[in-house]
Amino acid sequence: MMFARCAALVALLVGSVACSPAADPASPLGAGNALGPPLATPDQVAEWVEEKTGQCGEPVPRSMEEFAEFVGPLRAKLYAPYVAEWATCSAGPYERLGLVVFQRERLADFQRAWQGALSSGEVSDDPDFGFGNGFALSGTLGLELLGLHTLRCTPVGPDDEVGHTVPAEAEGCVYAQPPGHHH
Questions:
Q1: What is the pTM of this model?
Q2: Are 153 and 115 in contact (CB under 8 A)?
Q3: Is the four-CA dihedral 178, 164, 132, 171 of positive or negative sign?
Q4: E strands along the chain, which residues?
Q5: Mean pLDDT, residues 39-57 taken together
């Protein structure tokens, strides 16, 4: 039964991917324009996920204390100062999918803070959310099928397959989709 639900969600996701417009470097939204529609509240993110998947219809607003419990203390330290608000909903294999809306004007600060944490050894990898235009989802399974990107602030080596990339707000970071998932 669970396999059938996951297969149905993947089928919905595969059929729902829409192309994003190219980034406009002169835009005040920066790289975000290439990441799809700008979503500024968890309710808007939930509506978008529901349009794409038929799930996530009843988002539950959450506190920043709950955010720290949800992502753990290290990630909360790195994410929370840049999060405007967040909520959770149930979608696909996720009992609680995090719908995170960032303070748009602080995205570059978030990315630079992550770069600093990488340089100092505080973290060893890139953020583990799926990123859209001003928002992110906490899950990873199937999120590339929604057209979301990973945020890469680690150097890209010659053997790395990062697929389609869009420059992020901070120099040295890019939004990437796995090979074969862009259009």
A1: 0.80
A2: yes
A3: positive
A4: 60-62, 83-91, 94-102, 130-131, 135-137, 150-152, 165-167, 174-176
A5: 93
